[in-house]
Specification:
Layout: E1 16-22, H1 41-48, E2 51-57, H2 63-72, H3 76-79, H4 95-101, E3 105-109, E4 127-129, H5 146-159, H6 162-173, H7 175-182, E5 191-197, H8 213-235, E6 242-248, E7 253-254, E8 260-261, H9 268-271, E9 272-273, E10 275-278, E11 286-293, H10 297-304, H11 318-321, E12 330-335, H12 337-342, E13 347-352, E14 355-359, E15 364-367, H13 383-396, H14 408-420, H15 426-431, H16 433-437, H17 446-456, H18 462-475, H19 480-492, H20 496-508, H21 514-526, H22 530-543, H23 548-560, H24 564-577, H25 582-594, H26 598-611, H27 619-629
Parallel strand pairs: 1-5, 1-6, 2-11, 3-4, 3-5
Antiparallel strand pairs: 2-9, 2-10, 6-10, 7-8, 12-13, 13-14, 14-15
Helix pairs in contact: 5-8, 6-7, 17-18, 18-19, 19-20, 19-21, 20-21, 21-22, 21-23, 22-23, 23-24, 23-25, 24-25, 25-26, 26-27
The structure holds zinc ion.
Zinc ion binds next to loops.
Length: about 625
């Protein structure tokens, strides 16, 4: 039977949906999965009232592609986000677009830059809370604390019709009321809330914390958990008819298989995630042993709300929830960050029964029932199984991304990688699967990947970070990202003389990064080479025309060139996109003053003072400007 998009009338049906994602949370660090020192009591609480999927797997070991799979029900080839920074295809339906179309109120509150609205998961949400704070030196922070995310989520819940909260509270007291009301409920009052917290992601706590890394990791889980407990209490009013899904987006490696953090390899270290659900039609205290994928969440959640999600890779898990079984199937996962970030071969994984194949230049085959640690590669002894599963992997995705099919920014990244690999045939190399598989196998770059992870994790800072980057650039001179990071680190240390050659090396490799050209423009501006700074900013604007930092720097350059009108225009455009860009506001006040608009200058300066924290060191300079204007 084909299931239409109209509401089905099952006996027990969820009215609202809450999706909680906890970034980088390993299943085996959760009490419901047997961890004795669990600090994830919020997950355990949902698990105790519902179902635990013991063997749940992400479709990609990295934040944006994995969340895109959760929200679309499709594997990465189907939603188009193969790596962080690669936008989700705007034509693909998500839980939010579907429920919005059914009249739900929808809101998301996310905690980290990979989920910024520009990457395409904001579609369908009435509210998409993704504002990140800026550091004192004006850099956009990569994440925000769970406390702020949960505050925003609770504030949004309070804007929902208070009648519905009261109605649900009485429903909790009188279970028969739920059944009576379900037939007459106004779909306008239903809601979908997605809350994402980021604490368990590296760096684990602050740099001064000298505890062992796993203790710090658990501590971060505990920090996120305290806030999620607050969220669960706020949701108590709706608990009788709300489906709550809690999931990790990927795991985290602490040296298993020579890996640290996540994003490169597709071992279960980083693919296995916690997945628990509670709500109507979900039996309390049940566990499901069958392997499931996060691609199953969207079709399952939609079904439990009375709808259907079409054209998905995942399946509706309702038969499992009802105590039955699913038809046997295979589960796919992939990692294309090795290709997109480093020009290495991508990894694709197929799990089928007891077998798991990792398709790579050197394939790996594991009997995951007998060898959960994936320690014994059986590929050499089981060539037929390898061949069969490899052809299955190819049905989900070729081992490449065609630049012609990729969005322009990604195509540019890919071309840049071909160049850095020193391959004059770079474009055809990316198009041709054979050549793609001739790229380095990430397993053979384990040690390099571990060093890169150490750098990107944020666990290293200051001199230690610069030293690690210098080593990486020495050993891997074609690594354009390493040149860029070293250039930025030296720039932040005030050393433009040694930053510029690194930034030029990254630019020569064709790395399409606005940060690169902003860094160059900063150094060029400091030595008053305004013509070269102008060219660098032009390149930054071509790459990211809406980036407020780019607009602010263009404004500062225009002011230095004496064109206060153009400076004011560009600085205002920057502030419209990010009102917390304090340096832009200070320069706006200066530009007004130079243009003779003293009242506007004083207003901008006073506005800035009202936004700066009482302890901000910039206050003195702003106050001096205000006095000079009087
Ligand atoms: Zn993540």
């Amino acid at each position: 039977m084909t299931i239409g998009c109209e509401r089905q009338p099952p006996a027990a049906r969820a009215h609202n949906l809450v999706l909680i994602t906890i970034d980088t949370l390993r299943a085996d660090h959760v009490g419901a999965y047997g961890y004795a020192r669990s600090q994830a009591s919020a997950v355990d609480e949902v698990a105790a009232a519902g179902v635990v999927f013991e063997h749940a797997y992400a479709a990609a070991p990295i934040t944006l592609p994995s969340h895109a799979t959760l929200l679309t029900g499709r594997y990465p080839p189907g939603h188009g986000s193969r790596d962080n920074g690669m936008r989700v295809n705007a034509a693909v339906p998500t839980i939010a677009t579907e429920l919005k179309a059914h009249g739900f109120r929808t809101a998301a509150f996310v905690a980290a830059f990979p989920l910024d609205h520009q990457f395409g998961l904001e579609r369908g949400f009435d509210v998409y809370g993704d504002r990140l704070p800026r550091t004192p030196d004006g850099q956009l922070a990569n994440e925000r604390p769970a406390a702020g995310v949960v505050n925003d989520a609770i504030a949004w819940l309070e804007t929902l019709n208070p009648q519905s909260a009261i109605r649900n509270q009485s429903a909790i007291r009188n279970q028969s009321a739920i059944r009576n009301q379900s037939a007459i409920r106004n779909p306008q009052s239903a809601f979908f809330l997605w809350v994402h917290v980021f604490e368990p992601h590296a760096p684990y706590g602050d740099g001064s914390d000298r505890r062992p890394v796993l203790e710090r990791y658990d501590g971060e889980i505990g920090t996120a958990n305290r806030e999620l407990q607050r969220l669960l209490r706020a949701l108590d009013a709706w608990s009788s008819d709300t489906l709550v899904v809690v999931a990790g987006d990927h795991g985290e490696a602490f040296g298993e298989h020579g890996e640290f953090a996540h994003s490169i390899f597709v071992y279960d270290t980083t693919l296995r995630v916690p997945l628990v659900m509670r709500g109507p039609a979900v039996r309390a205290r049940s566990t499901i042993a069958a392997a499931v994928t996060l691609a199953d969440v969207a079709p399952t959640a939609l079904r439990l709300l009375g709808f259907a999600m079409r054209d998905v890779d995942g399946v509706d898990l309702a038969p499992l929830l009802a105590g039955g079984a699913l038809a046997s199937r295979e589960i796919y996962a992939e990692s294309f960050a090795p290709l997109v970030e480093f020009g290495w071969a991508p990894l694709r994984a197929i799990r089928s029964g007891a077998w798991k194949l990792i398709a790579a230049p050197k394939p790996e085959l594991f009997d995951v029932n007998a060898d959960a640690a994936e320690a014994n590669n059986l590929a050499a002894d089981q060539r037929e199984v390898v061949q069969r599963l490899d052809s299955r992997a190819n049905r989900y995705s070729a081992p490449d991304i065609s630049p012609s099919a990729a969005p322009p920014d990604v195509a540019e990244r890919l071309r840049a990688l071909g160049y850095t690999a020193g391959n004059p045939q770079s474009q055809s190399a990316i198009r041709n699967p054979q050549s793609a598989m001739e790229r380095p196998d990430p397993k053979d770059r384990r040690e390099m990947a571990a060093r890169i992870a150490q750098i990107t994790s944020g666990e290293l800072t200051g001199e230690a970070l610069v030293t690690a980057l210098e080593g990486l650039v020495r050993d891997d001179p074609r690594n354009a990202q390493a040149h860029l990071r070293l250039g930025i680190a030296r720039l932040q240390a005030g050393d433009c003389a040694r930053a510029e050659p690194e930034l030029h090396a990254a630019a020569a490799a064709g790395l399409p990064s606005a940060d690169l050209y902003l860094g160059l423009a900063t150094c060029l501006g400091r030595r008053n080479d305004l013509a070269a700074a102008e060219r660098a900013l032009g390149e930054a604007r071509r790459l990211e025309p809406d980036n407020p930092a780019v607009l602010a720097n263009i404004g500062i350059l225009r002011a230095a060139q004496g064109n206060q009108g153009a400076a004011i225009e560009s600085l205002m455009a920057a502030l419209a996109r990010d009102p917390d860009l304090h340096e832009a506001r200070f320069n706006l006040a200066l530009a007004y003053a130079r243009a003779g608009r003293r009242a506007d200058a004083a207003a901008a300066a006073r506005d800035l003072l009202s936004r700066l924290p009482a302890s901000a060191p910039q206050r003195a300079e702003v106050e001096r400007l205000l006095r000079a204007l009087q």
